[in-house]
């Protein structure tokens, strides 16, 4: 993405907001590998959540031409979205790109199905909450759907480490296989096998996780 932006901008100041130190290290490694190609980009690394960044940077911030939040808004609580999106728009004189799963996909359906006293996955924010928030803030936006599928076959292979991690991700709980409610894996498999939930191709089990691409158009007079 930076290389594409370099075609339009001669100098780029890139602020990276990322709570995970591990993620920041891998991003820095990539940047180092590409340092010649990215010669006109400077980086400001912020190891914090977008919520922390919003709270600290409320005033006097330079404006950004472009804000990108790709699969990074799931853990902004719904009740806080208006505040954070409005703050982000306050910094933006250009465009904001958000990519986030829609609630019609497998992940949301799975979490709804299994939500209950014995099992309550961490609440997730999906695309509709973002667009609802944009509407209530009177921020104009465009959306498009990006079809995506996920191969969940390994979730049901007892010796697969990737499958165990994928299951934890889908159910938003660490250690589902070892510490989850008894029968959880069996019930998840029954759900995956039920009508209109999954399909198979070449012996693999796939589910759909459609992603919404939401482009918010910044630069509203009242917000710049
Ligand atoms: C699925 S990854 C996407 C990473 C990157 N945007 C990409 O497309 O490759 C989600 C990222 O969002 C980060 N994240 C999670 N919660 C966040 C928050 N509250 N604020 C900012 N980033 C967050 C995670 O640490 C993770 O690196």
Describe the structure.
The protein has 224 residues and is of the alpha/beta class. The strands form three sheets. Strands 3-4-9-5 form a four-stranded mixed beta sheet. A three-stranded antiparallel beta sheet has the order 6-8-7, with no helix packed on it. Helix 4 packs across helix 6. The radius of gyration is 20 Å and the shape is globular. The two termini are 25 Å apart. The C terminus is likely disordered. The structure holds S-adenosylmethionine. S-adenosylmethionine binds next to helix 3.
Bound molecules: S-adenosylmethionine
**Mean of the pLDDT scores?**
87
Termini separation: 25 Å
Strand content: 15-25%
**What pattern of helices and strands is seen along the backbone?**
HEHEHEHEHHEEHHHEEE
Helix/strand-derived category reads alpha/beta
What is the topology, as strand order, of the major beta sheet? 3-4-9-5
Number of DSSP strands? 9
Tally the helices: what do you get? 9
Ranges where pLDDT stays below 50 over 5 or more residues in a row are 220-224
Helical content class: 25-40%
**Inertia-based shape:** globular
Largest sheet: 4 strands, mixed
- What does the radius of gyration come to? 20 Å
Organism: Holothuria leucospilota (Black long sea cucumber)
Protein name: Histamine N-methyltransferase
InterPro entries: SAM-dependent_MTases_sf
């Amino acid at each position: 993405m930076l290389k594409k932006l370099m075609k339009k901008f001669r100098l780029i100041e890139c602020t990276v907001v990322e709570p995970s130190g591990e993620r920041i290290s891998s991003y820095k490694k990539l940047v180092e590998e590409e340092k010649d190609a990215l010669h006109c980009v400077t980086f400001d690394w912020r190891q914090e959540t977008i919520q922390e960044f919003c709270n600290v940077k409320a005033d006097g911030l330079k404006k950004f031409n472009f804000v990108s939040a790709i699969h990074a808004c799931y853990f902004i609580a719904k009740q806080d979205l208006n505040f954070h999106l409005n703050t982000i728009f306050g910094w933006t004189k250009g465009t904001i790109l958000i990519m986030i799963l829609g609630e019609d996909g497998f992940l949301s359906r799975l979490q709804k199905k299994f939500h209950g006293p014995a099992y309550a996955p961490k609440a997730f924010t999906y695309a509709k909450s973002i667009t609802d928030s944009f509407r209530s803030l009177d921020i104009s936006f465009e959306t498009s759907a990006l079809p995506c599928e996920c191969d969940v076959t390994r979730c049901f292979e007892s010796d697969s480490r990737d499958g165990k991690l994928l299951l934890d991700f889908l159910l938003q709980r660490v250690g589902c296989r070892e510490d989850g409610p008894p029968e959880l894996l069996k019930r998840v498999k029954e759900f995956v096998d039920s009508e209109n939930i999954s399909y198979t191709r070449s012996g693999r089990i796939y589910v759909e996780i459609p992603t919404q691409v939401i482009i918010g158009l910044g630069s509203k007079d009242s917000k710049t």
